[in-house]
Design goal:
CATH class: Alpha Beta
CATH superfamily: Vaccinia Virus protein VP39
Order of helices and strands: HHHEHEHEEHEHHHHEHHE
Number of helices: 12
CATH architecture: 3-Layer(aba) Sandwich
Strand content: 15-25%
Number of strands: 7
Number of domains: 1
Structural class: alpha/beta
Bound molecules: S-adenosylmethionine
Shape: globular
Length: about 290
């Protein structure tokens, strides 16, 4: 499949509209409000840390930035997708805020933010689209003042265990080192995992991965502190969101029931988040 760059996918009009609407209409019959939950967690953390100067990297259509600004914070944002920035400017005007709070830049290597100048950088559903996540995080860290915060969301690799589909199979194949199994055991193993297959997806259900958009492999919340400390970032907290109350295929049977039950169990600090949440937020402090 031809690979599309993430910002090119997000530059398309359906994506721009979606990122404007999802924060305005909280309707479980239309979509699961995972990003609304994400925004709530980010705002709670900002209220705790009280940073003076915030940058929203990959701000999209700007709705979270607007909500954060309306809470009294000093925030600017940027995105690489031109149409997202145009939409963000429109949204800012709609909410009577200056449209120059947002501009075009690249979070893999931001050019318009000065080094050591920011108290807090936010990456909401952003950095895992980078070609090189570690390099991106290091480039973001440069922009932070000492003890500044880098708060960003990542995909949860452990969620693969509970999806009971082809992702589960790949996960188990890897940790059981199935390639190395002796032949008879390999057959036994294949038998045990034969039902872990992908569901048939219709054109309408296609998501960003199925569109061939490059996005980085998910991260493991158990090892994330060690990974970040190698980058000079101390993980001060992790918070789970986008819970799945049942294996994802169940959403195709009765999406409303699926979403209502999932919304009910959203809890950023529940241990079940390690498995049932497809995404988590990492709150890091720049220590070196
Ligand atoms: C999943 S959307 C999230 C948008 C917004 N943060 C939100 O929470 O609503 C990801 C955004 O990252 C942007 N993006 C992807 N690659 C980028 C890059 N290299 N630099 C800046 N923005 C990028 C996309 O254009 C898109 O708007």
């Amino acid at each position: 499949m031809k690979k599309t760059k993430a910002f090119q996918f997000f530059n398309k009009s359906f994506s721009v509209n979606d990122y404007s609407d999802m924060y305005k209409k909280l309707r479980l019959d239309i979509r699961y409000p995972a990003n609304v939950k994400r925004e709530q967690i980010f705002i709670k953390l900002l209220k705790e840390h009280k940073p003076k100067k915030i940058v929203d990297a990959g701000c999209g259509a700007g709705m979270p930035l607007i909500h954060i600004k309306k809470q009294g914070f000093n925030i600017i944002g940027y995105d690489k997708a031109e149409n997202m920035i145009l939409e963000a400017k429109k949204n800012l005007e709609l909410y009577r805020l200056p449209s120059d709070l947002v501009f075009i830049d690249d979070f893999e290597n931001p050019k318009k933010i000065k080094n050591n100048s920011v108290d807090c950088i936010l990456g909401m559903g952003a950095f895992y689209y980078a070609k090189n996540v570690k390099k991106t995080l290091l480039n973001q860290k440069k922009k932070l003042k000492k003890n500044g915060r880098l708060i960003f969301s990542l995909r949860n690799r452990l969620f693969d265990i509970v999806t009971l589909n082809n992702y589960t199979k790949s996960f188990l194949d890897e940790i059981y080192e199935v390639k190395k199994l002796k032949k008879e055991w390999k057959n036994q193993y294949k038998h045990l995992t034969k039902n872990f297959t992908d569901r048939k997806i219709t054109k309408l259900e296609k998501n960003i991965d199925e569109e061939g958009v490059y996005n980085h492999i998910p991260h493991n919340p158990i090892t994330i502190s060690d990974e970040m400390s190698k980058l000079g970032l101390s993980v001060e907290g992790i918070y789970f969101y986008h819970y799945h109350a049942f294996p994802p295929v169940f959403e195709t049977y009765d999406s409303l029931h699926f979403r209502k039950n999932s919304w009910k169990i959203e809890n950023p600090i529940d241990w079940r988040g390690y498995f049932l949440a497809s995404t988590f937020i990492v709150d890091c402090k720049k220590v070196s």
